[in-house]
């Protein structure tokens, strides 16, 4: 997260216009929630379970309304040491 947004207490939605990174009102960024979650996911150092190599992962897809993996991904998310 950019340093200018650390240690400040503001809402992402509403009338607090100090945080206009995602715009506001009717033209607010539709992917704001995704962006916030992506930043949160970036704070983890992702690892696969013991004994599983990336090339051994089953990437088979399953058809549906949305395309998803037939077997769910199992990953271990220890917290990144660099995150405050």
Automatic annotation (TrEMBL):
<keyword id="KW-0479">Metal-binding</keyword>
<dbReference type="GO" id="GO:0020037">
    <property type="term" value="F:heme binding"/>
</dbReference>
<keyword id="KW-0408">Iron</keyword>
<protein>
    <submittedName>
        <fullName>Geraniol 8-hydroxylase</fullName>
    </submittedName>
</protein>
<keyword id="KW-0503">Monooxygenase</keyword>
<dbReference type="GO" id="GO:0005506">
    <property type="term" value="F:iron ion binding"/>
</dbReference>
<dbReference type="GO" id="GO:0004497">
    <property type="term" value="F:monooxygenase activity"/>
</dbReference>
<dbReference type="Pfam" id="PF00067">
    <property type="entry name" value="p450"/>
</dbReference>
<keyword id="KW-0560">Oxidoreductase</keyword>
<comment type="similarity">
    <text>Belongs to the cytochrome P450 family.</text>
</comment>
<dbReference type="GO" id="GO:0016705">
    <property type="term" value="F:oxidoreductase activity, acting on paired donors, with incorporation or reduction of molecular oxygen"/>
</dbReference>
<dbReference type="InterPro" id="IPR001128">
    <property type="entry name" value="Cyt_P450"/>
</dbReference>
<dbReference type="InterPro" id="IPR036396">
    <property type="entry name" value="Cyt_P450_sf"/>
</dbReference>
<keyword id="KW-0349">Heme</keyword>
């Amino acid at each position: 997260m950019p340093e200018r947004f650390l240690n400040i207490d503001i809402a992402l939605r509403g009338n607090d216009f100090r945080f206009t990174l995602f715009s506001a009102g009717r033209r607010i960024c539709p992917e704001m929630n995704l962006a916030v979650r992506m930043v949160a996911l970036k704070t983890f150092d992702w690892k696969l379970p013991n004994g599983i190599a990336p090339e051994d992962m089953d990437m088979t897809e399953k058809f549906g309304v949305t395309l998803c993996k037939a077997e769910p991904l199992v990953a271990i998310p220890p917290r990144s040491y660099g995150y405050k």
